[in-house]
Amino acid sequence: MEYKTVLTTCGYCGCGCGLYLEVLDGQLVGIQPCKTDSVSQGGLCIKGWNIDEFVQHSERLTSPLIKKDGQFTKATWDEALQYVADTFKTIKEEKGPDSLAFLCSAKCTNEENYLLQKLARAAVGTNNVDHCARL
Amino acid sequence: MKAMQEKVRKLLEEKIDGFIGLKMEHGHPAPFLFSRENLDDLEGLVVGDVRYPLNKTLLRVAGQYPDLTFGVMVRGCDERGLTELSRWNQLHRERVVPVGVACPPELAKLCECYKPYPAEWVVGDKTEGITESKRLVSVENMTQEKRLQHWMKHFNKCIKCYGCRNICPMCFCEVCSLEDRSFIVTGKLPPENPTFHLSRAVHMVGRCIDCGLCEEACPSNIPVRTLYKKVNEIVEKLFDYKTGESPEGKSPLNMLGEVTLELSDVNK
To answer: ipTM of the assembly?
Structure first.
């Protein structure tokens, strides 16, 4: 018998509300808002209140997919990253770096977003960087 | 704090299989299940400056382990909750051992709690209850038109997060009418008002133990607690029923018989 709460940050948007994942015998069974969180102070939106749903969802993607002959097929991370790197390289060589664009996300940390723009500007050579929060 | 730690240690050694309380972790007091196997965890047990729906955690854990006996930290409101949850067959009251906390005067005042202490407590001192709710009086002093405006102004701030329902230790229904699509349209903000909030208020009859966690969870600062305080006032006047006070008798919604009750009797 083990019930524990895991303090974490909501991954749905950039607000960064604090919440607890409730874990009963290894299963994620619910969430509680963190009432002492300095950002959200015990409040959450409907997405945060339901964030436990996708973690162990049966339809959640657990590996990368590469489209082959019109069908998504399972791939390893090495295969997927190699495929992306090769394709980016070909596009950059054939059409120039501004043929590529990078979209970062409110779900990522500041550091991850920083790294993405660094990759775009320093490694690929384009200023085409945007963010899903522009929606 | 030491008194509670010692009490829980003794209970875990002799009587209960687990204790649901708060433990200081990462600088935050969080809901935690203390067990006989890990008595050292009790060093981190705190009463906490903030309140969590521990009875909700109790239902979750006891639901999985119905034959075990659990202790739970209770304030006056939580103890009322245990009484009602038992009446609604959500838990076996004889398998729950409450460990009491008497609320400090500041909290009692903030809550306008009529009984800010459980039957027995190991932490705190008894504070006299507050029988008149100033927040309720201030709303009732408005004209009917102003009062409607007041509530609609607040209700229309609702972002429909369902936080008031989700955090409520007395909301245990498997099917919730606030999710009935023929009744509450999805993808629309604010929700149908006043229907959305008044529906929840009606469902608080015989349930609301006035813990106020709903209002604390509301990101839009809607004073829902005032609304439910009114519900409790009506329930008390009409049915002579104080929610959570006595384990005897039926819940108001199960009392209805041949009697016709006039709401006008309770209006000022």
So the answer is: 0.91
